[in-house]
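ENCODED BACKBONE
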Amino acid sequence: MKEVIILTIRELARVINMPYSTTRKYVKALEDRGLIHMVRTDHGYQLGDHAVEMVKQLKALVESGISLNQSLDQLAGSKDNIIALLQRMDQKINNLEKENRALRELVQVLMAKIDQLPALEPPKKPWWKRIFKR
C-alpha cells in the first residue's frame, strides 16, 4: 500500500529545496487554477501527494525557462487532457456494460431455446455390433 504524504507548505519547501515564499506563491497559483486543494488544519495548510507532485512539476517547468503563467497553463492543459481521457474511458465502459448486458440476455434466450429442444435418443449400435455381441 502506498504511503500517503501530507506536508505543510514549509515542509514542502524544505523537501523540494525551494524558498518558502516561492513555494507559497506556487501553491497559491496552483490552488487558484483549481489544480490542487489545500486542507486547513490547526497546524496550517496541508498538502497531499497530488499537490506535492504538481508543485514539483511546476518548479521543473519554471526552472526549464517557461514562465510561471505558461507553466500553469501547461499543467492545466494536461489536467484537461486527463479529464477528456477519463470521460472517453467512462463512455467506453458504459458502452461495454451495455454490450455485456445485451450478450447476457442473448445467452439466456439461447439457453432457454436449448432447454426446449427435445432430447435426442442415444445412437443405435451399428448392425454388426448387434450381431457380433462382444
Remarks:
- Strands lie at 7-8, 39-41, 44-47.
- The chain has one domain: 7-114.
